[in-house]
Amino acid sequence: MSERVGVVVVSHSAAVAESVAAMAVALAGGGFERIASAGGTADGSFGTDADRITAAAHAVDAGAGVAILADLGSAVLTVQALLTEEDELPPDTRLLDAPLVEGTVAAVVTAAAGGDLEAVESAAREAYDYRKG
Fold first, then answer.
1. pTM, full prediction
2. Which chain positions lie within coiled-coil regions (predicted)?
3. 6-114: what CATH class?
């Protein structure tokens, strides 16, 4: 795996996180390996799990930063709490303010093309402006 920004998809649902990650990789042309999903809890229930998020972030970290996209309230709060604790997440980890699906696709496409963390964050944030009608 090359040194690219890593991307973590956090959802209350393991299936949603895995599907969003898979779709983003496919739409980026495949082959992007610096992505992980952290959905649901260890027992397979809906919810968020700080240990899963931490493990996913460390798994995709190559030193270029880690972008985390989250779905709902407690997922966002869990990531925010992890960001305040020293050494929980890799250096240069950011929670991106972006819609989960469109933002993840934009983040992965940009990261796969070699964009730095600033570019990945900007692309994901711009997904708020995608017009659907």
1. 0.95
2. none
3. alpha beta
